[in-house]
Amino acid sequence: MKNQENIKALLVEEDQAVVDLIERVLKDKSYSVTRSSDEEEALNLLRNTHYPLVMIGDAKGAGSIFDVMRKVVMTSPMTSIILISDLPAKEVDDKAEGYGILGYVNRSIPFNDLVDLIEQFEKISQSIHLPKT
Length: 133
Description:
The chain is an alpha/beta fold. It has five helices and five strands, in the order βαβαβαβαβα. The protein has helices spanning 16-28, 39-48, 65-75, 89-96, 111-128, and strands at 8-12, 32-36, 53-56, 80-84, 103-105. Strands 2-1-3-4-5 form a five-stranded parallel sheet, sandwiched between helices. The two termini are 21 Å apart.
């Protein structure tokens, strides 16, 4: 996707090793990345700045990734979400149903899975921003 440098991504995760891996992938694609390890800080960032992409994992002050996901959707409904979780796929699918997330990656951050989700986000984002004829 062209002009990714204009795309802001927010990473909500307290494990710095996980954040470092994701950030490296996003920065390689020229995304502007903001880190937050705290749920309330992340929500305040979303209230003040539009982040088209938010990746949610374990955050300080959060009950679960699904609590954070719900609050992100309520705060910024047009934001695309990728979850970071080692929960079974069925549990993630069941609990995230209706929230329109792009998908999720395991906490080991499989490179190809993450890149596929980011490319899916880019295709959706690009189709939304195509000039209307």
